[in-house]
Amino acid sequence: MDNSRDLNMDCIVAEIKAQYDDIASRSRAEAESWYRSKCEEMKATVIRHGETLRRTKEEINELNRMIQRLTAEVENAKCQNSKLEAAVTQSEQQGEAALSDARCKLAELEAALQKAKQDMACLVREYQEVMNSKLGLDIEIATYRQLLEGEEQ
């Protein structure tokens, strides 16, 4: 009896071992399949991320070039602005100097005009006095002429 039981146990153990080997084999196959699919997914993800990384690096490089170009343009604009501000300041100073000179010349001309008017008024008075004297002399000459003509006759 013991023998039959041993035989039975050996069969049971062999059957369980076969089932275990089958389960282990299927599990191993499933694990390998899962591992392969995960590896393929990871490869695809790496490729996708690598492409995204490459595009991002290109965008960063392009943005850096754009930043450099815009920075240069800003610096150029600042320099040009400084030059224009200096030119405006210089023009304002020159304009103020020219205006000041013009005002001085205007004052001089107005003073000269006023003096010329005064001189003219003096000359007109003198002319009137001379003309009055001439008129008096003309009358006196005419009177003497009449007297002389009267004596001759």
From TrEMBL:
GO cellular component, one term: extracellular space
One Pfam short name: Filament
Single GO biological process annotation from the record: intermediate filament organization
Database matches in Gene3D superfamilies: 1.20.5.170, Single helix bin
UniProt cross-references to InterPro entries, sorted A to Z: IF_conserved, IF_rod_dom
Ranges where the IF rod domain occurs: 1-153
Protein name: Keratin, type II cuticular Hb3-like
